[in-house]
Amino acid sequence: MTDREAEGFYAALLADDPEGLYERAPCGYLSTTPDGIIVKVNQTFVDLSGYPREDLVGRRMFVELLTPGGRIYHETHYAPLLRMQGRVREIALELVTATGQRLPVLVNSVLERSSMGAPVIVRTAVFDATERRLYEQELLRAKQRAEASEARATALARTLQQTLMPPAPPRVPGLDLAAGYRPAGDGAEIGGDFYDVFEIGTGDWVVAVGDVRGKGVEAAVVTAMARYTLRGAAVRLPTPSAALDALNQALLRHDTDRFCTVGLVRLRQRDGRWCATACSGGHPLPLLIRRGHPPAELGRPGLLLGVYDNPPLYDTEVALDPGDVLLLYTDGVVEGRSGTDFYGEHRLATTAARYPGSAGALVYGILASVLDFQTGDPRDDIAVVALRVPD
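User: That's the sequence. What structure does it adopt?
Assistant: Structure tokens below.
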């Protein structure tokens, strides 16, 4: 059939049966007076509503076919919009059928006016939205399932993270020790920063501060593995570098693409004097703070863990005098940002020099300074540990 023949066929069809086209349209049609009385309906609307035509035309108002909530919406939104704009589109309502069932529908209406501007008639198209409503409900259920799954994952990660942070630093005889932690943002996302302080013998302690790449449950799992691997390795291996190498091998064997940085310090008391051995696996070097001297980094940088087979790791030993302080921290401190400006090592050293007293004052002074620099909204987790040799 040619285009011309098709046009002729459809023109003849419309000319022969215009009423049939109206009656059997794929949507319900009804016409009402401006005050809502139904004056005409097509067969499709009769089928949708379940009411005989004679029970609708001249006897009912369109609003009477709606649910109580739909009637309120009709009076407060639908009808005022129609009067002001002359049309409304895709209004979601529920039609109460003759059997009392609720049928989801979408409604389009136009208000026709006389040449003098007076309302004359309202013409409305009613579309069966049952499938659309089912689809929307399934989307809502899928969203709720996803939210519930995310909530469970977050709860699991929080539980894991609570095991990564000691509820309070342990008391180390002969040392003043303090630690602080601040999660990124509002704390809703689980990060990979951790710290740990544990004893491996009399007068023999280990302090670890680390940062696992990424956030969420997997980062928390790797953080837990890192913490307990370090605990086991520090007991059986003689140096921090050996313990970090053991963690590196464990990460390489682990089925994950996560890597981490760790700063590890071993503290041994000899003849009443503390000696510290520090090693960094890609982590910011600890600061050594001494009276009369500016804060200085302790040790040599090493490579991060979980990427290379044999990363260079260096042990640096120093004897601590009374009043000396060692400060360990994660990169959330120096990489804290305000606009395009970083908090940086210089600000950290300047802030650390202001708190020559207790380890607690130093930790909380640094946390307050970093948070204030970022107007109270840090982009990354922050962990700080300070240990001071009492005078």
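The domain at 3-134 is CATH 3.30.450.20 (Beta-Lactamase).
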